[in-house]
Amino acid sequence: MTITDWPRTAADPDPDSASPAAVSGTPEPVSRTLGSVSDVAEFVSETESGTGTDTSPARLTGTQKWTAGAIVAFALALAGIGLYLSFEHVAQFAHEELRFGSLGKGQLFAIGVDVGIMVMIAVDLLMAWLKRPISWIRYPVWLLTAATVVLNAASGAPKDRAWELLDYVAAGAHGVVPVLFIMVVELGRTSIDRVVRPDQAARDSIPWLRWVLAPVATARIFRRMRLWGVTSYPEMIRRDQELIAYEQWLKRKYEGDISQATEDELLPMRMAPYGYTVAQALAMPEEQEQAAQEREEEAERRRLDAETRSEVAKAESEAERLRAKGKVELVQAEIDGQTGQARAHARAQVSAAERAAALEQEALDRALMAEARAREAEAERKEAQERKAKAAADLEAADLERKAAEQRKAAAEADKIADAEADAIETERIAEVRRRKAAADLEAAELERKAAQKRKEAAEADRVAEAEAQAIETQAIAEARKAAAEADRVAAERERAAAEARRATAEADRKKAEEDRRREAALADIARAKKEAAEAERAAAETRRVAAEIERAAVEAEDAAKLKPRERAVRKVARMILAAGGDTDRLPLAEIQRELAVTSPGTASEYRQEAAELLAGGYRPE
Asked: Which controlled-vocabulary keywords does the entry list (predicted)?
């Protein structure tokens, strides 16, 4: 083998193990060697993990049932022994060392821990039996069991001397029965799981000897097996060996410098932590390119399908048009043929009796013309009646709008008068209240002024009396009078502040009155605006009424003149131009189409042009 050849795998792949990430179209290894390493690993896995591929029958025999019953009985006996051995020690330790109030409370604590362990174990076994296992429930069981072991060991720890070898043996002996019980429970749980779910894929365990010899590498293998769902230990070993062989091949290819390798060649090392094999990683670029090409092809196919559907629709539409045109031409040809036959027959008859046929044809033409004129006159009469009815309806609507405008005007006047009266009453009431309040404030100010005058007179009298009795009054009387004078001064200051407050209140009342006046002016403006709007609406209604009168008179004049429909339409457009201000361009064609019920903008344009010429010639509706 040269240095550029594909490396040989160290072990054959396990056909029973599925890859963690399914990659379609993974190429098979180019060559295979003897699978000695893989065979040894399989032997170790099967002998030490006990996970064979053969499934036991679904139903138990009589002997198997008796054996299972005996195992359950011994497991319960083991549980009872463990509870009996640990109960007294845990209760006494909880009372003495964990500060439970009494021995009874310590016993309740021990019972609670043991009952909790048994309940969670029972729930775990029941859910495993029901094919709904709860994986996390075993961890609290282990934790509580470890706590029980620790409490038992602590209860037997020496208190007044150092630990000896026998003390460690004794502490370990306290954990033998609980740990043994947990092992039996785990064994029972696994057995139940395999009985009720025989088709579940078994997971290989890694041999303990590998954990001892290579703990770090084994931990990596264990992590990858759990992360990416690889259940076969030999398959995981084969992948590692294949990756190592591929890496050595790259080193030989690039003379020890792997950094020279391309990105695609480095994919196996980069994708190995994510559960990819060497073959899967090397096939990734090609598969991704193929997927991208398939996506592009799918997009191109959808685009071509859309174009094809569009072309087919166009072709079908063109075919329908051609078929319709052919039918029209066929009918036209039939009509032409029938017409030609009739003309030939007529010419034959004319050759026999030309004069009689000519007279008969002339009489027939006159009859047809008379009938056509009669139909035209009937159509004009109906159209005139319709226009007259429409004009009458417009006149009635204008009258109704005028009456409604007058009613709204009257209502606006009444609202204005009512608002003005309400505002006047409210303003008069507010002014009366404010006037009374001002009078009361004035009276209070007058009383306070008189009281201040009296206090001033009293102070003056006190000053005179103080001057007269200055020689005989004591120091205490002088201090009292001084305090009284200070109190009078403070009272005068307060009165001045109160007067300032009243002045500010009066100013605020004045401003509020000003605001009320402005509000009343605004209400008057609003009422005036409403009145003007009602006037404008009444004027508009009057304008519409006059227009309706003009239209009605014009229709009657047209009926009297026996105008043709086109002449009537042109005059109606002329009246519309006059209503629009006399400017022909201001009248849109869409409005002409709507009023005259014509679909062609060209016809509407012709009507507007003829109407402009009619107006230029002096036409004015009476």
From this structure: Membrane, Plasmid, Transmembrane, Transmembrane helix
Assess whether pLDDT exceeds 60 at residue 3: no
Task: Please tell me the distance from the alpha carbon of residue 235 to that of residue 225, in angstroms, as a whole number.
Answer: 10
Burial zone of 269 (CB within 10 Å; 0-12 exposed, 13-18 middle, 19+ buried): middle
Q: How far apart are CA 9 and CA 11, in angstroms?
A: 6
Q: Which of 220, 371, 340, 282 is nearest to 30 (CA)?
A: 282
Residue 468 is predicted with a pLDDT of 61
All residues at 6 or more sequence positions from 252 whose CB lies less than 8 Å from its CB, including other chains? 3
Please check whether residue 550 lies inside any domain of the structure. no
Pick the last residue of a domain from 200, 217, 250. 200
Q: What is the pLDDT of residues 505-561, one digit of tens each?
A: 878 788 888 888 888 888 888 888 888 878 877 887 787 787 777 777 777 777 777
- What is the structure's pLDDT at 6? 45
Percent of the chain with pLDDT over 70: 75
DSSP state of 599: -
Would you state the pLDDT for residue 488? 76
Q: Which of 167, 200, 233 is the last residue of a domain?
A: 200
Structural domain boundaries, residue 72: 62-200
Specify which of 153-162, 215-224, 326-335, 370-379 reaches the highest per-range mean pLDDT: 215-224
Examine residue 376 and state whether it is found in any structural domain, yes or no: no
What is residue 4's predicted lDDT score, i.e. its pLDDT?
40
Q: What does the block give as tokens for 616?
A: 């230029």
Nearest CA-CA partner of 240 in 258, 224, 262, 257: 224
pTM beyond 0.70, yes or no: no
**Structure letter (DSSP) for residue 136:** G
Residue from 16, 19, 9, 14 nearest 225 by CA: 19
- Of 56-60, 106-110, 395-399, the one with minimum mean pLDDT is 56-60
Residue 118 forms part of a structural domain? yes
Overall domain count for the chain: 2
Q: What is the pLDDT of residues 334-369, one digit of tens each?
A: 787 777 777 766 666 666 666 665 666 776 777 777
**Dmax over Cα atoms in the chain, in whole Å?**
173
* Backbone dihedral angles phi then psi of residue 200, each to the nearest 5 degrees: -70, 140
What is the C-alpha separation between 155 and 96, in angstroms, rounded?
10
CA distance 170 to 156: 7
Q: Within a domain: residue 169?
A: yes
Name the residue with tokens 């769902």.
Answer: 229
Please, are residues 242 and 278 in contact by the beta-carbon 8 Å criterion?
Answer: yes
Rounded distance, CA 76 to CA 181, Å? Answer: 9
Q: What is the DSSP letter of 159?
A: S
Taking residue 225's Cβ as centre, other Cβ atoms within 10 Å add up to 21
